[in-house]
Amino acid sequence: MKTKKVIVIGGVAGGAGAAARARRLSEASEIILLDRNPYISFANCGLPYHIGGTISKRDQLMVTTPEAMAQRYRIDVRTSSEAIAIDREAREVEIKNLETGEIYRESYDAVILSPGAIPMRPPIDGIENQRILSLRNLDDMDQIIAAVGGNQTAAVVGGGYIGLEMAEALRTRNIQTTLIECAPQVMGTADPEMATPLHHELIRNGVDLRLKETITAFEPIDNGLRLRFESGKTLDVGIVILAIGVRPETTLAVQAGLQLGPRGGIQIDNAMQTSDPSIYAVGDAAEINNFSTGQPALIPLAGPAGRQGRIAADQIFGRDSRYVGTQGTAICKVFDLAIGMTGLNEKTARRENILYEKIYVHMPSHASYYPGATSLSLKLLFDPNSGKVLGAQAVGANGVDKRMDVLAVAVRAGLTVYDLEEMELSYAPPFGSAKDPVNYAGFVAGNVLRKDMRICHTADLDFLAPDQVILDVRSAKEIATGTPAGSVHIPLEQIRERLSELDQEKEYLIVCRVGRRAYLCCRILEQKGFRARNLTGGYITYMHVKGLDAKKCPKH
Amino acid sequence: MKTKKVIVIGGVAGGAGAAARARRLSEASEIILLDRNPYISFANCGLPYHIGGTISKRDQLMVTTPEAMAQRYRIDVRTSSEAIAIDREAREVEIKNLETGEIYRESYDAVILSPGAIPMRPPIDGIENQRILSLRNLDDMDQIIAAVGGNQTAAVVGGGYIGLEMAEALRTRNIQTTLIECAPQVMGTADPEMATPLHHELIRNGVDLRLKETITAFEPIDNGLRLRFESGKTLDVGIVILAIGVRPETTLAVQAGLQLGPRGGIQIDNAMQTSDPSIYAVGDAAEINNFSTGQPALIPLAGPAGRQGRIAADQIFGRDSRYVGTQGTAICKVFDLAIGMTGLNEKTARRENILYEKIYVHMPSHASYYPGATSLSLKLLFDPNSGKVLGAQAVGANGVDKRMDVLAVAVRAGLTVYDLEEMELSYAPPFGSAKDPVNYAGFVAGNVLRKDMRICHTADLDFLAPDQVILDVRSAKEIATGTPAGSVHIPLEQIRERLSELDQEKEYLIVCRVGRRAYLCCRILEQKGFRARNLTGGYITYMHVKGLDAKKCPKH
């Protein structure tokens, strides 16, 4: 194989992985790994957990050292070294040694750009205040740890992954914490009703949650900052963690005249090749293809970055690996809950005009009679014609990761809801149920597709047609704590005897706690000549849609 | 739809599910559910956990009551009612009321047999002793609880699911417990090296583990039993739990003249139909198709039973549901470990002459820098030509169920190891790694298929060819605790400088802890013109194959 001189720019996740892969493919090639920081390959996903104290030692965050990488892989690791320009004509990278100030050039056969992303700092009055910090690398982390030491109050701006993890970290350190999000929900990559349990979990853990609040100014005050909101409210805090998202670090790519994509990332093809065939880009800065929508996307996650690094190295050494796109599988711990997602969400489906149906199930994470089972809420999006699984989201204290992984494979493999019905998953009481939530989701969706059960959604209950009636079939005890406005009540166990109370001219929208009793009720009514629809996910989903705390919904 | 009269025989898992499904499909049909016990639908998988005290209340084991089932589903539930004969010509079931002794007949349009299985009791001298108990239903459980109350010593005979769960349950109650297994390993549905960690876990938890011991006689002694072994040894215990497996309960099927399968279960087709088209069979008594081998199989698990019940009901009411076979996905908790499996294992592949290759990975259950990560050992079987995933097994303290479920879907969907490489699974430090063990298994298997890395197995180290040399590339500290006999030692970090010590005429079998350093070493050696093979799974798998406790293998 031809040896090459490869320069990898950026030594975390994608970059470090690409360098190691390149070495395995070509023992004789020259591989230079540049990073502007004095370290490489640190555990950036672990930063919030060291701030919170869950990861006690800072050393644990060092995945590898420049020395270890150099020794094992014989990679020329140059830390504190910034690539400041790429001379594509001369095929040289201009490098600045940040310790000495020296600037020099290195020729290359191929370059892998893995520059990552940088926290967004919107042009708000006062944004340059030293008390406004963001979290991206070890230095940021150290600064935040130093800052929280002397401050008893903090505001986290932004309710995405980092914002949520930081809110948890600060509360773990007993800091009085306000979480500010301009949207009506945290975790914008999930649908709003799936984020509702997170809101209540944040509040339960002492986070002062402020949704739909937009900051208009940061003003310095004694020992702190005053935040002014569009709503006219203000908030005084010691420090602010800004976590409203990241943007791809494209400075070098722009300097080099590489094409950017419509979302502002470095444009690449499925070989990770940029507009210059000798230059590859991977990770947060690269604009990849969304597997679900086919649209360009920026998905700053560690898993895809690693795979992309591998592909770039493969390509450089003559292997035709291709990236099939990112499906947005992700998970986030929020105190005792986790929220996970994969594939298409409803927001995106609507925006992209993708035809879908959705169902919800709420089930224990494992056999309910075995200790430790907690409620798992699962939302499934599927094609209403083919039954193809389009995407899923789940929230709960346990087992979210497992169901998301199973459904991630289903999405990737193009499986249908009928396949979910048949899936043979591992069952013993400590781990699952004989019918797993994934199977159940398949059953429910299959019932819809086979027209064994027609369903409706909370929005339908809010906008009843004149011939529609909401029928709540839960027990009186359950209904006492809440029921959709205007509903009539007949417990499922009495429905057969009380059919005469129903009207053949009406369509009944049936409500129970999770949708199982309503399913049986639908079957009974339909077979007796009535029209009926099941509110999928039942009153629990109804509460989630309404923003209510479903933990207060009693079991029957 | 035509209404029918359906008699379901057996009211647990498959039977209760079939009856409920039948009702949902046909509100007007007559559905009778018979069970010879005074209860139905109990959590049989939970029985050992109530004995051990993990499930504290007996009531928690009642999934539903005859009254609730009757009320909600309008099913004619008849407990303490045994179907003693089926008159296929008259289309009548003969039923005995076990409380009154009354015998009567019920006509039927269709019968669903869900009789379950019964514990095997081999014809060993003294097997009828009252101190020899087995666990199948609530009565058995109550008897065992009563018996262990007065006994401080117990022997569990059989190291399968029930045997292992019972050993744990008894130890949880602080009973001195001996586990006796005639095979050289517990959990016979796993390959032997995957069971090794279970052996050490049992011993660590105070179980007196006796493998390769066959009982020849049970002799009554004062307040107990003496077990005599083929080895000449004896053991005195208070009680014995017999858990050597179950056989299908086919008494009624045989009486009715239904065809049995080659494995002794009730023969059915993929519509769950027996040799009599009006009679269906589901669950532990039904002989189904093994998805991996295409051979008839008895797989007494709750998940498949539930799906089969649904299919039988569908068929009766004119829906052409089909059972695609059972792939043997299963999991068992053994103290702090879990062992899981899906699809083909190596034993079966050998027996059935199915071509396979195997690889092993050992990885932390989630990001190693986040607290609570434990080691997960994963074995993957795949087709060496197509790369199709054939089966997998895993053992570890955490995350076994998740990886087995992902791989169960891969097996079912016919995915390849290349698909495993690409899988986009949920990652955040508390839940996984950016490269999940499933991805890693895909990488390793992909490396084998792409011929980037040749591998070898422990058996190859035991029977070296004259030109083969074992090369251990771990650190001196690691090697100090053990290395394969006859190996030479060069730490990976020194290999490039010490190539002159190697011989181009030899083939090197490279050993490290888990196979990652050996992979890089293979790449270096192959590119330098040497022949090299990686011992897949490294010294950890080597220890597992040798029956050694890999917890004693230090990290580098």
User: Order of strands in the sheet with the most strands of chain A?
Assistant: 3-2-1-7-19
Total helices of chain A: the number is 16
- Would you identify the CATH H-level superfamily of the largest domain in chain A? FAD/NAD(P)-binding domain
Rough outline of chain A: globular
Structure keywords:
homodimer, 556 residues, alpha/beta, FAD/NAD(P)-binding domain, 4 domains, five-stranded parallel sheet, 16 helices, 31 strands, 28% helix, globular
What does this structure look like?
- Two copies of one chain form a homodimer.
- With 556 residues, chain A is α/β, with parallel strands linked by helices.
- Chain A folds into four domains: 5-116 and 247-316, FAD/NAD(P)-binding domain; 132-244, FAD/NAD(P)-binding domain (3-Layer(bba) Sandwich), CATH 3.50.50.60; 336-449, FAD/NAD(P)-binding domain, CATH 3.50.50.60; 455-539, Rhodanese-like domain (Oxidized Rhodanese, domain 1).
- Chain A has 16 helices and 31 strands.
- In chain A, helix 6 crosses helix 16 (538-546).
- The mean pLDDT of chain A is 95.
- Chains A and B meet through helix 1, helix 3, helix 8, strand 22 and strand 23 of A and helix 1, helix 3, helix 8, strand 22 and strand 23 of B.
Produce the secondary structure layout.
The structure is a homodimer of 556-residue chains.
Chain A: E1 5-9, H1 13-25, E2 30-34, H2 47-52, H3 66-73, E3 76-78, E4 81-87, E5 92-97, E6 103-107, E7 110-113, E8 117-119, E9 132-133, H4 138-149, E10 153-157, H5 161-172, E11 176-181, H6 192-204, E12 208-211, E13 215-221, E14 224-229, E15 234-237, E16 239-242, E17 246-248, H7 251-255, E18 266-267, E19 279-281, E20 286-289, E21 296-297, H8 302-316, E22 330-334, E23 337-343, H9 346-351, E24 357-364, E25 375-382, E26 389-396, H10 400-413, H11 417-422, H12 437-449, E27 455-456, H13 458-462, E28 468-472, H14 476-479, E29 488-489, E30 507-511, H15 516-527, E31 531-535, H16 538-546
Helix pairs in contact in A: 1-8, 6-16
